[in-house]
Amino acid sequence: MSRRQGRAGLRALVRSRRVGLLLSLVLVAGLASACGSRLSGHDAALAQGALGARGSNAGNSGVGTGAPALGADSGNCSSWGSGSAGSSTTTTTAAAGASKSTTTTTAAKASASSTTTTTAPCSSASLALSGGGSAAGGGAGGAGAHGTTGAAGAAAGPSTAAAAAGAGPCGANGNAMPAGGNGGATAQGVTANTITVGNIASISGVAPGLTQSAQQATQAWAAYVNSTGGICGRQIKVQPFDDGNDSGTNYADAQQACSSDFAMVGNASGFDDGSAQAVGACGIPDMAAEVSTAAAGGTADIFGASPGNDHYWALGPANYLKSTYGGAISKAAMIYLNVSATQTQAAHEVAAYQSVGFNYLENISTDPTNANYGAIVQELQSKGVQYVTEYSDDNSAERLLEAMQQANYAPQVVDWFSEEYSPEFAQQTAPESNGDLVLMSATAAYEEASGNPGMQLMESWLNRVAPGYHHDIFAILAWSAGLAFEQAAKEVGPDLTRAALISKLQGITNWTGDGVTPPVNIGQKIPSKCFFYMKIENGAFQRVYPTAPNTYDCNSGYFQY
Amino acid sequence: MHEFLEFTIIGIVLGSAYAVAASGLVVTYSTSGIFNIAHGAMGMFMAFVYWQLSVGWHINTGLAFVLTVFVLAPLLGAVVERTVIQWMDPTNVATTLAVTVGLTLLFFGLVNNYIWKPTARVVPQFFGFGGFTFLGVHIDWEEALTVGAAIAIAVGLRLFLYRTRTGIAMRGVVDNRPLIGLFGGRPARLSTLSWAIGSSLASVAGILVAPRLQLQPLILTLLVIDAYAAAVIGRLRSLPMTFLGGLVVGLLSSYAQGYVPNSGGFWSSAPVQGLLTQSVPSIILFVALLTLPASRLRSGVAQRHAPLAPASFARSVQGGLVLVAAVWVAVSFMGPANVIKLGIGLAFGLICLSLVPLTGWGGYTSICQLTFAGLGTFAMYRFGGGGSVWGLVAAAGIAGGVGALVALPALRVRGLYLALATMAFASAMDNAFFPWSAIFGFNGSVAIAKPSLFGLSTSSPKAFTVFLAVVFALFSIAILAMRRGPFGRVLVAVKDSEAACATLGLSLTATKLAVFTLSAAMAGVAGALFGAASSVASGTDFQMFESLLILAVVAIGGASVCSGALAGGLALGFLPGNAQDVFIGAGTVALAFYPDGVLPLGYARFHQWWDNLGVRAARGVPAARTVPAAGTRSL
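The joint structure predicted for all components is written out below.
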């Protein structure tokens, strides 16, 4: 049933299918995935230092990928430079004096050049993730390794594409068919010429098109990889599924993928508790865009570009708000929809933020279909609340904003999260939303793509495969998931098996997907602790902190519970 | 005091919106005898049309409003009445409800999946955020407009229906349609006019609330359900009482939002918050239904079609064996995804099957079968660990027990009011029970084990799907046996004429209680198996709106035959999500022309053809027409 559910990505995002529910639920489920950005993260790999390279693109393409270079001590900021035609050079200087690393990547054909330096607000930063060299040439790009693989303990280090991709039997970029063949059908869904991967998104049902962009991004990634020659001579073939915002269908789709596909890539659904059952039983690797439900987060073979983890809560945003709006956080209010995903997120955030000094005067639950925020706003006003945040879908957020405007209530801080990072929300809430903050902790920003080669590459391929795609975080996360799969598969080499791929995915501990996401520990399933803040002004998003484009604040650690 | 005034004004505005929506319902019902479940969906549809005109095509707001409310909306209502409603028998409550449910699904599906691209839309307020201050409380012009519109509509409709010849004739149509015709009236035109007015009022309600809710198809569609309480307070006839009912619902909802504590362990718990803040309209609806005067016994129901005779034991066993064999063969050739979809379809079929004795034979409409199924799933999760058969037993017991509890207070109402009572119960459960972390966990979903019976494991999807076919066959054989027995005959007799049965000393109360309990228990077991087929379950799987879908597919297939339930379940299992609403909605709307459903019609036609064939063969001449339906047997 299409609406059964509903409700969920939003469960994760939406977990409610109709119902007043449903649509709102679905939207709520959407929250879950978006919430991933607030969830977590881990800093271990960053603090430990060094990370491997993001591969280069010596291949047959016009895209160069720089290598992430990493300073030595606790990293607190990351940035990546823009690419341009020419050779790709990434330079990172650790302000803390720990290290300096330089990565040089040369593109074989189009050759791209990029230079990355850390910037002002990150003056203490010792980490810079060079997104380096990917110059979205709009054409076939070199494939190299895209993320960073954990190399715990290394203080710093130059890294090269070859270090990640390896100059193995499939060539320096892992694209080529080995001289003696690639072994043919080494696993379910693998032939000498193809690797079939499944992709489950929530397209129909109560919230049509909810995570369709994730499927489009996965197809765009496959087209991109195929243009570079594939993986060890095998082309990527995507088998698309639509779970209709329904756990049962999600389960059925995953079962089908178990029997016909090698792996699943770029999944995005608030109903991934269904696929969790199937994956747990059959052992198919699942490199998802986002992990929404606790069931999926607890399944060994499910990884995510936005991992699900209920034990870590990044404290960076709280510390930033405390230092910037010290007076407001003592008069805070949390509003959340009374559906499971948002209840969980709100409870965790309140506990985490209280640990750094937030004082919540109000902790209010409301129904997804509540059209009357007047009573809530009046309560906030009467208590003198100066910091307001809400875990909800963007429709509920719009209603809250309207009620605030009607009551002429303007708290010092209104803090939204990634669910509200959509052009529609910004445009439709203008001018009430002017000055509102939007926390970004799962992905980079579309607005800054001009300085982010990884985003440029993604957008160039998405514009080819799915013109007019929706600019949301699911597309970015799915693209990142595809790159992670690609890197792991190339590291496995020609003898591709599910167990070997899972082993390699477990080894990806500091991943940025060519700079489209903040550093995230895919292997250990710990979300990023890095963040930046945008604000809404006249229907558009503008960066607030750190001020330099494409940088994150990674200074703070986690609240653990 | 300021706070109280604020909540009061919010409540009045909200209540006014309810009153406008409920007024349309009352006008339609009091002049056509048909309760339009699709009232909200029609309002939602017209709100989208208004948005398209005013925002999408930049037509002047006032002109767009006039076009929508006074031209397009009445046209829509008239078209619906002329093409669908006029063919229906108002005394057949189950079918009329099903058809309007179909209209709901059809409009929802068209808007949500086909006509307008799904994205957030904002309907601008007529006067922006400007307004005035009254007793220190800021009031938007928009809010004042809503209240004013409600008052004007209530007064205007009252004058129209009681002071004009056309209005009086419209009310007369529902009481005695032929008599109006004899006195020179045109019942068909009057009925069309009432639906045009109802549609226009629905569009007003949709346009007034859209700026606050955004254009969300589901939310706008369901909003009107809250207005049902206001309409029932007006007994579906009195416009002044309906207006008052709207204010009562709005004010109590607003006060509940404002004054029910939302902190503290007890007060912040999901059941308490769900009941006391979100379920206020449902509670008012339930209470209003219970305080209605007891329904008068119907003296008889005109039936256009004689009921099908139940299949014999041998025929039902044959049918069961065919089903199991067919499923066995099918799973051998199907891929994993389709095997699971087949299993989910069979589980839905079992839920649909629970409506066969209740609706198909008893004539009682339930809009809470998925709620009972959810209780069964919960029981399976709690007591069926490792696939224990006790989970199924608990599912039957808990769902059956709750079904009896629901039926008890609802015994004194029947027909439409009974359906609305089950809807109120389902809505309250949606808000208070299923979101509770104690039910399906704090994260909202749980894994449901596949049952293991007598040492036979059904853990593989294929084995479980075949097992579901066996269960469906056994349930069908059992209820068909019941249908042939004394209880089944009483059930059908009560449906035919409650008055006659009461005269004969049959207990209507006991019959209703028994069939409700049986149906709920069946739905509970089906829910347990549905959870196992889906592998995971959450409270959102069992929302009231989904029960409408169940009711619709059963009606399409034929509520009086087990095979109709099977067909409906398989449709739910296999139809793509984005096509379900439109296809099922369209199929249900077509019930206006085949009220017994597709399969009973097919069986009747087949037997007619078969009998004619036999007659021709025996006589060697073309057969005369026979009356086939009453003697026709079906599965």
